[in-house]
């Protein structure tokens, strides 16, 4: 049976799938994980072949953009074979874009290879240009390794967008430097507000929360920021920095609602499909994948899930309790 393109009950076409390929990571960023994380047993993870099957099912149903994320996607063993197999959809024209969000630690090894599989743009997370601060934020990260990874990405011809989480009292003195540095390197830059996801141990998100309106006000003191219409299909609002010529984006899930135009769903490494980043409702796709070799059951489960995609989310940083409003970690759903 030929199935229709995926359209949710609010008329939004589903064209973007983000896939967390692992919950593991070689960093322990303070806003993302606690230092002592318990990771999933291997049997619970979709195999790379199963991930390919689910992604390919979505491509057949109208998804045009796939983003691999994590955890750290590039630390999953043999992950290049997934890039290789998914690249067939780029060649066949079923997919417009295959991309990845990474902490950059493995780009020295893999940048050339992923470019060879048709990846054109990547997101690299980097919150500071100060090595000691980088260590304080990531706990386990190696700054020089990430810088080498970024060089390798440039050499491979990949377009890089830097993701920077704005953290009160941590990197708020560096925003101008980040803009200038991204300008010199030809990188776009997106600022992200801290979201209340997952228990991260001692600190609370309230301590870290910095509204991007304040980031923007600070940047306006030194840079000429011109709003542009550009959309990456996501929640970021973009400006062009006239002095550097690079785009700067602002992702403000807490203070603005971007749900009306939401075209995306998220798959975890265990095959759980989240229809909304901010809500708990989810659908199990692993059971139908494992129940039969054909994709009929999987397609039924996808249809049923998209039929439940909610209209919107309601994140709140609760000022009295500062509890996490969504219990899973960002590294589970992949941000
Ligand atoms: N490990 C990869 C990386 O760091 O780019 C991919 C996964 S990571 C979960 C994806 C993005 O989510 C990163 O840019 C990270 O900074 C961001 N992130 C993680 N926890 C967050 C939180 N609580 N609030 C806002 N952004 C968060
Ligand atoms: Fe790892 Fe990315 Fe989370 Fe940092 S933000 S701990 S690099 S998954």
CATH H level: which superfamily? Aldolase class I
Order of helices and strands: EHEHEHEHHEHEHHEEEEEEHHH
Shape: globular
Small ligands present = S-adenosylmethionine, iron/sulfur cluster
Instruction: Name the CATH architecture.
Output: Alpha-Beta Barrel
CATH topology: TIM Barrel
Helix content: 25-40%
In round numbers, the mean pLDDT is 90
Instruction: Please report which band the strand proportion falls in: under 5%, 5-15%, 15-25%, 25-35%, 35-45% or over 45%.
Output: 15-25%
What class do helices, strands and sheet pairing give? Answer: alpha/beta
CATH class designation: Alpha Beta
Tell me about the largest β-sheet: 12 strands, mixed
Please give the count of helices.
11
- Tell me the distance between the termini: 34 Å
Radius of gyration: 19 Å
Structure description:
- The chain has 335 residues and is α/β, with parallel strands linked by helices.
- The chain is built from 11 helices and 12 strands.
- It has a 12-stranded mixed sheet with strand order 7-8-9-6-5-4-3-2-1-10-11-12.
- The structure holds S-adenosylmethionine (SAM) and iron/sulfur cluster.
- Iron/sulfur cluster (SF4) is lined by residues 25, 27-29, 32-33, 70-72, 103, 125, 331.
Summarize the structure.
Helices cover 31% and strands 17% of the residues.
